[in-house]
């Protein structure tokens, strides 16, 4: 059985002080993560505090992005070398907000994935279709292309790569697909991954909340959740960890 992943993507929320407060609350609640891989991805400026504050909780720290070069004249970018130096374990790559607002391409995503895996970071590569693409019947085509071009030629180990299916139309909108529809897409993704498909964990993201998470992660091909806004609330995030532990 594939080990479930519960990831919290804080996006541009929670500075250093709020990160410390969140971790303190986690410790007070004596959260157990046994049997589940749990990580939080705070803003870059909160990574040092997160690494320190979450120590001993069983919750790992991830980054929301990185660049594909180790160093150089790349103003505003963050190297995988820097992340490793901080003790960061996970990195999210190709999130739809990066693709939409910052023009990230499948080719750029591939270079980032390759670099992150070379540095032994655990990668969550995000894929998913827009509402227009879905309505046009192109969801599978879009997802296939994102997988093909995002992982083209990349040598990945099944334990270091996870895929997050995040339908763009569901992120931050409150809209969610039926769990059975999400399962269908996860099954398609698993088949697309070929020989390693049964080993790779495919998680769902897109308006995941306490009230609907169990419906998704009990599906055969859904191996956890990448959680956005709901991961900012300590009580809710703890409850979602507990739900995953019970499965």
Structural key phrases:
alpha/beta; TIM Barrel; eight-stranded parallel barrel; 40% helix
Would you mind describing this structure in some detail?
- 40% of the residues lie in helices and 17% in strands.
- The chain has 247 residues and is α/β, with parallel strands linked by helices.
- The protein has one domain (4-245): Aldolase class I (TIM Barrel), CATH 3.20.20.
- It has an eight-stranded parallel barrel, surrounded by six helices.
- Strand 1, helix 1 and strand 2 form a beta-alpha-beta unit.
- Helix 1 packs parallel to helix 2 (47-53) and helix 5 (106-118) crosses helix 7.
- The termini are close together.
Summed up, what is this model?
It is built from 10 helices and 8 strands. It has helices spanning 16-28, 47-53, 80-86, 96-102, 106-118, 131-135, 139-150, 179-192, 210-217, 234-245; strands spanning 4-9, 36-41, 59-63, 90-93, 122-127, 161-165, 201-205, 224-227.
**Given the C-alpha coordinates, what overall shape results?**
globular
User: What percent of residues are in strands?
Assistant: 15-25%
- The top-level CATH class is Alpha Beta
Distance between the termini: 11 Å
Helices and strands, with pairings:
Blueprint: E1 4-9, H1 16-28, E2 36-41, H2 47-53, E3 59-63, H3 80-86, E4 90-93, H4 96-102, H5 106-118, E5 122-127, H6 131-135, H7 139-150, E6 161-165, H8 179-192, E7 201-205, H9 210-217, E8 224-227, H10 234-245
Parallel strand pairs: 1-2, 1-8, 2-3, 3-4, 4-5, 5-6, 6-7, 7-8
């Amino acid at each position: 059985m594939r080990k479930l992943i519960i990831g919290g993507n804080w996006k541009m929320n929670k500075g250093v002080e709020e990160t410390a407060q969140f971790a303190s609350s986690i410790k007070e609640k004596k959260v157990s993560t046994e049997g589940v891989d749990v990580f939080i991805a705070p803003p870059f400026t909160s990574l040092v505090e997160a690494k320190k504050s979450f120590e001993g909780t069983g919750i790992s720290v991830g980054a929301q992005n990185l660049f594909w070069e180790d160093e150089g004249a790349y103003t505003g970018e963050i190297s995988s070398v820097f992340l490793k130096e901080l003790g960061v374990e996970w990195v999210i790559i190709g999130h739809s907000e990066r693709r939409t607002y910052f023009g990230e391409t499948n080719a750029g995503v591939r270079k980032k994935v390759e670099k992150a895996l070379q540095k032994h970071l655990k990668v969550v590569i995000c894929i998913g279709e827009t509402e227009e693409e879905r309505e046009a019947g192109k969801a599978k085509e879009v997802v296939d292309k994102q997988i093909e071009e995002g992982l083209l030629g990349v040598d990945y180990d099944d334990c270091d790569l996870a895929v997050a299916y995040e339908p763009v139309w569901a992120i931050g909108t409150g809209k969610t697909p039926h769990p059975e529809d999400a399962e269908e897409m996860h099954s398609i993704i698993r088949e697309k991954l070929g020989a390693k498909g049964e080993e790779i964990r495919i998680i769902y993201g897109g308006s995941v909340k306490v009230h609907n998470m169990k419906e998704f992660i009990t599906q055969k091909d859904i191996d956890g959740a990448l959680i956005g806004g709901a991961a900012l609330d300590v009580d809710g995030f703890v409850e979602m960890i507990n739900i995953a532990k019970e499965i």
